[in-house]
Design goal:
The protein is mainly alpha-helical. It has two helices and no strands. Helix 1 crosses helix 2. The protein starts with 17 loop residues before the first helix and ends in a 21-residue tail after the last helix. 1% of the residues are buried.
């Protein structure tokens, strides 16, 4: 099974940086814990709102592919 950040392209074009995967994992964990806590009526875990808010503050990723098919990794969030 391939990991989500691993490229299927023959020359191994990196689609996602390892740091992006780490941030995505942290956000996923914070969202799961926050959702579970809210469903139980519990207090939120100390740092989870900070993780969610920090992720929400980052500009969305821009288009990474130009009309010619050449990747453009200079957009926001790159």
């Amino acid at each position: 099974m391939r990991w989500a950040g691993e490229s299927r392209f023959p020359h191994g074009l990196r689609l996602v940086a390892e740091t992006d995967l780490d941030r995505a994992r942290a956000l996923r964990g914070a969202l799961w814990r926050t959702t579970a806590a809210r469903a139980r009526g519990d207090e939120l875990a100390g740092g989870d709102p900070d993780v969610v808010n920090a992720s929400a503050a980052v500009p969305p990723l821009g288009t990474a592919m130009t009309p010619t098919g050449v990747p453009d990794l200079s957009g926001p969030g790159r």
